[in-house]
Amino acid sequence: MDSSADPAGLGAQLAALTTEAFRPDLADIDRLPTRDIAGIMNAEDATVAAAVASRLPEIAAAIDATAERMARGGRLIYAGAGTAGRLGVLDASECPPTFNTGPGQVVGLIAGGPKALVAAVEGAEDDAARAAADLDAMELGPDDTVVGVSASGRTPYAVGAVRHARAAGALTVGLACNAGSALGAAAEHAVEVVVGPELLTGSTRLKAGTAQKLVLNMISTITMMRLGKTYGNLMVDVRASNEKLRARSRRIVSLATGAADDEIEAALTGAGGEVKNAILILLGEVDGPTAARLLAESHGHLRAALRAAGAAHG
To answer: Catalytic residues per the record (predicted)?
Structure first.
């Protein structure tokens, strides 16, 4: 739950937030059978996707703007506190193995630093100046995107990050779960997914957290699609860092090309293990160095590289 730099008015602020509203109809929920409580939670969760769906135009606009900047070398930076901050760090940490993003290309900033991932850091979410300092340490630029994440939409660390980033000329997105939030007002792109009161009053790790995870999934995944990190619905930029991922790499090449196992192994060897290059070798009928060159000239977009390979053959 968010705290405030203005304790005197905090109670009134929280009372006005949808995410903090009390549900009298659930006042005796702890007395129900476990199966009934689980059913109520499941029914509550089922409403989240519809709340996200109502904000798809705003989400899509934010993604297109983010992808445009990342195509120029910009970074995607999430900033939040508590659950929101942890979700941002989670999404950022999963981009390198899934999309082979470079170091620092997708970053999650959490109020209080890495130790806040596993333990509460007293007062960290109230520190807007710390958010500015964290961004300054990254040498923020106009091609970067900063996504402030806060269920309440008033967390000082998230709002401070967005305000500082916008002043620096970066693209800004405010992801909140209350309408008319300070975070949404501070950002160029406001994404306010209103999921309603929580089953446990004010426990925004529940529906609000689920909504934030869904939106962050969209932002990172679709942005990477726009950057050519996928081929259809295949993860062609997957980083094969363990045996499971190596097996997945072989399967992806198989699904994309329909080639025989020995051809796939030869292509992956010729591509230095790079899935995208191996697919281009097989479908474009080129060698490893040519595949690497065509992909570089196509800025990593496999479909464009395949067209270039076809033109070269033609």
So the answer is: 94 (proton donor), 125
